[in-house]
Amino acid sequence: MTDGTPGVNARPVVLIGPVCVGKSVAGALVAERLGREFIEADRVCSQIYAERGWSPARFAEVKACRGAEAAYDDFEAFAAASACQVLYGYLGAVIAMGAGHTHYRSRQRHEEVLAA
Length: 116
Fold this sequence. Notes:
Layout: E1 13-17, H1 23-34, E2 38-40, H2 41-52, H3 56-66, H4 68-89, E3 94-98, H5 107-115
Parallel strand pairs: 1-3, 2-3
Helix pairs in contact: 2-4, 3-4, 4-5
């Protein structure tokens, strides 16, 4: 039995679900109980998107030039990379991840995030 303190290589506790199901409330409670940091992936990923060069304007530009499918593929690449960055960057934390960071049309992207 442990005291709840994550080890150096502790995997994060990840809560997944759609909007407004209580991930943030439950996550904060779990994190407090375990003595871990609580992270809301949507907030962190928004910052990561900007750092990596994605924006709503980029989405609109790709959509106008290459179509909706290309725009969604472009965004999905940013979403998957950002999700991995959060999962690897916050080892030991409790992380609330919305469905937008856990479901991908690309099986490869899905597997990359799952492996993280």
